[in-house]
Design goal:
This protein has 312 residues and is an alpha/beta fold. It contains eleven helices and 14 strands. It folds into two domains: 169 residues, Rossmann fold, CATH 3.40.50.300; 60 residues. Helix content is 34%, strand content 27%. A six-stranded mixed beta sheet has the order 6-7-8-3-9-10, sandwiched between helices. Strands 2-1-4-5 form a four-stranded antiparallel beta sheet. A hairpin with a 2-residue loop joins strand 4 and strand 5.
Length: 312
């Protein structure tokens, strides 16, 4: 998809800066989200993703910059903007004292939607979330995946134009994650716009039309997943592991690879043509290997590093 035109964007963020004490959580970040696309913000924990979402919703005051959400200036017109926005937060904030149905009714009332209108919408929302049989269930009776799907259904009560989702599949098993992905694709096919934060590379690669990679409050890359992979990384990767893999990688791999990275007991060999290195590995049965195309995770780790870091 072509680069978003800020004037026609569903969401435009320009030179956003937010500090906490001496720490710049968000440092001069700009991006625009086109209507009808899924745009993802990727980054390690503490990269500034959640801070950006909170600023966009007018829930956190920012130091400088400008935000335009669905034609409204934030924070001055944040309340009007939120009327047309759906939000799926990172943490479960469902009301445990209410049933599934009651959670939707109460949330709809925040938007001034009358009970009759909400009542008409609930069956469709629960069917969309695959929770039709749980209408009278208490929140404590739901699995983690069911709660996430209910939060998605709740975010759609006001029929929003734009949906902001903060780490929507964190903590879910693979089956639940895939079901959430399927529902998000359905929303995009209906013309909804999605801004998604995630640290799951496969999630971004499957869902996002475009994405920005954030690190320590800065935007360090932006583009479609394929554009970023093509621009930032060699096309083929050979992962080598097993006893002696690290020693082999240090002594032999550099002459056959464009770049070698070692993480723990695994060597990542990035190559344009893997023929030579695969022939070499055939003569070393003690070494195991995985040969694959480069992916978004390789780009992410190249740009942000493999080391664990403390969150600010």
């Amino acid at each position: 998809m072509a680069a978003a035109n800020a004037a026609a964007a569903a969401l435009s963020v320009h030179e956003l800066r937010k500090t906490y004490g001496t720490v710049a959580a968000v440092d001069a970040v700009s991006f625009a989200v086109c209507a009808g696309e899924c745009y993802a913000l990727l980054g390690p924990n503490g990269a500034g993703k959640t801070s950006i979402l909170r600023c966009c919703l007018g829930l956190t005051a920012y130091d400088s910059g400008a935000i335009d959400l669905l034609g409204y200036r934030v924070p001055a017109q944040a309340r009007l903007a939120r009327q047309r926005t759906g939000v799926v937060s990172q943490m479960d904030n469902l009301d445990p004292d209410f049933t599934v149905e009651e959670n939707l009714v109460v949330y709809g009332r925040y938007f001034g939607i009358d009970r009759h209108t909400i009542g008409r919408r609930i069956p469709e929302l629960l069917e969309f979330a695959s929770l039709g049989q749980k209408v009278h269930a208490r929140i404590s009776e739901l699995s983690g995946g069911m709660k996430r799907r209910l939060m998605l259904a709740r975010a759609l009560v006001n029929d929003p134009s734009l949906i902001l989702m903060d780490e929507p599949t964190t903590g879910l098993d693979p089956q639940a994650r895939h079901l959430i992905w399927e529902r998000l694709k359905q929303l995009l096919s209906r013309g909804k716009t999605i801004l998604l934060t995630t640290h799951f590379m496969d999630e971004a690669e499957r869902l996002a039309d475009r994405l920005a990679i954030l690190d320590r409050g800065h935007k360090i890359a932006e583009g479609t997943p394929r554009e970023l992979i093509r621009a930032q990384i060699e096309p083929e990767v050979v992962e080598v592991f097993g006893e002696g893999a690290v020693e082999w990688a240090r002594n032999r791999a550099p002459s056959m690879s464009s770049r070698v990275e070692i993480a723990g007991e695994t060597a990542f060999c990035y190559v344009t043509d893997a023929t030579a290195i695969l022939r070499e590995l055939e003569r070393r049965p003690g070494l195991r290997h995985l040969y694959r195309p480069a992916n978004l995770e390789d780009v992410f780790l190249k740009l942000t590093g493999r080391e664990m870091r403390a969150e600010w």
